[in-house]
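ok posting inputs for the zinc ion job
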Amino acid sequence: MDDIVYYYPNRHEQHFQAGHPERPERVEEIVKALQGAGLWNAYPKIAAKDVPLEFVATVHHQHYLDQLKTASRNGDMLDMDTYTTPASWDLALQTVGGAIAVAEEVWTQKAKRGFALTRPPGHHATRNRGMGFCLLNNISLAAQYLINFHQAKRIAILDFDLHHGNGTQDIFYERQDVLYISTHQSPLYPGTGSIFETGTGKGNGYTANFPLPPGSGDEAFRTVLEEVILPLLDRYEAEMLLISYGFDPHWRDPLGHLQLSAQVYGEMIEKLCTWADKYCHGKVAIFLEGGYDLEAARACSEAVVMALLGKKGNDPLGKSPRPESRSWFSMLEQAKTIWKIT
Ligand SMILES: [Zn+2]
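and the output
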């Protein structure tokens, strides 16, 4: 079994817009950092799986797929901040195939962990709409693939991006075969992810949101993970952890006001890996979402991959120079009441 398998999106540099924060350098800096730390060359890179459009259409509506294909041909914007280029359609499909390949490799225990450098990102893409720099919902399609073709029954998606993954939440909101858990800054784009959004119908109790006020940092993330997220994973008996990995909660990120350090990001992944080793054969795969500071990209990615490999890293950027706000504490107390965690 490989210790970790990567997916790298070929020709992703053709998906770019001058001056836009979601730029190819994000992925290239991650690769450089992992190379520099001896975490890249020694490990396999998996090719994207060829994914039939009929499968993609089990998560996204066909009319949206048609619209995305046409927009991409013309290089149109999907909304004010979501661009396409003539390369975007093929890249988005390739990236979905990469996410699925990584998830499958870990699910079938050919690799212990996985890291899909998915670009464009996916967690804001809903069934019928691309938004927030996201075209197709990579992580949701990976989860759906495990459910359809590998008889997965309980997949946990943990979303640590700065932003709420409204698309992922929407897709699984009425279902219990995916538990969606998100930490995110609130208020912030896209405005969803309140603590009271907990799923509906059969999915009631299978969406958990932990909105963090601006200024929340290491202590908030550590405490929320220990006191609510891990107990929810215990309760759900997740069969695999899929993690939406954005490096935008890092204190250097220009789009956010959370103050997470790379070191504590790594510690969180380490704790989740320990949980997975104990309860689900170590099955953990991470999928790139947002993050717009290139130094944070390097530090967080190195810390997170070290954690996936069970190694200790160091954090050259250190802690936020700003004091951490404790106003998240009341959210945590409220969350414990909602989720009946004592
Ligand atoms: Zn984000």
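notes: The longest helix spans residues 88-107. The chain has one domain: 2-338.
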